[in-house]
Fold:
Amino acid sequence: MHGLSRDDCERLDREDPLSVWRARFELPSGVIYLDGNSLGALPVGTRQRLDELVRVQWGEDLIRSWNGNDWIGMPRRIGAKIARLIGACDDEVVAADSTSVNLFKLLAAALRLRPGRKVIVSERTNFPTDLYIIEGLIELLGQGHELRLVHAGELCDALDETVAVLVLTQVDYRSGRLHDLATLTRQAQAKGILTLWDLSHSAGAMPIELNAAGVDMAVGCGYKYLNGGPGAPAYLFIARRHQRMAPPAIAGWMGHAVPFAFAPDYRPAAGIERHLVGTPPVLGLAALEVGVDLLLGADLRLVREKSRQLGDLCLRLVEQECAAFGFERASPHDSARRGSQVAVRHPQGYAIVQALIAEGVIGDFRAPDLLRFGLAPLYLRYVDIWEAVAALRRVMASRSWDRPEFKRKATVT
Structure:
């Protein structure tokens, strides 16, 4: 390669204060993993934690573990740990359910808190499942609510006194564009609008200060930058000022004030616990806790700084080395406006990603034409970016992407 060299990247790795964290993950040899924004890598401690839980806590202690090993306290305990990663108080977060279910629960509560308003504002490019949840809840309620979808640049103008809730994802899942969470929250609340943020593509990759920004509610997943494993439990946040008045949309037994009284009538718990529903998924929560504990030991300011540098490096190398192959930048040029991922466009994006995977470089594809590369700073090296772009150049120069097997769409892209 010309310009930046592998030696330059190796020097950056030697100077990297986060380099010691790579050894805390189980990474397969011969693979460059650029998909941590979809599924985080396996922490070294997870295997041991699950083995001990299965063999001893489940295998030997059996049902006694709900008390003896505090299985029952896992949603609150892990939620309190996640709270420290997102700038919340310990009693404002619980780990439970999926992001989609939590979004349903919190959106329903938010609409109850703004009974005279019928409009929900979101972005046209918001993550589709978030929009599906909103549409489904509107239909279920049957009270004349409306979903107003606008482009990012139109959000401020869309906020008026008819709007009940602003629902946004902090980092766009396609382009990696980063919303200004604090500014949009302030603009919404000036009009009496509640804010509900999806942190799935940001938490764990950058500092987040929900309370400093005055955010009302938030949700997020556990399997991306929190490294909780496939299908890991999600989490939800409700600011203290709303907890007493925010009704649970699903009145489950774990959200009861006294679950084991087995009373026939529902009485919600006083705080954030009222938004729990069913029996905690102990195995999933245990794996999630390992990933969260690992992140709590890292300096998220350094994580964010390295994330921006990795993104700059990746985009610069693609433009420098692959300019002849028709790639178009899809991510913001300014790293301050990007999350921890970058994306480029190409008409043959899917086939190119499959050819890269065959070369040992794992990224992913998002329709219709996006090659997306996740940048997990705790285990990704600068030299990995250099090698990944070198592989991309080989794939394009040799046209290996044009093989039929790389054009057959798999179920998961």
About this structure: The chain has a mean pLDDT of 97.
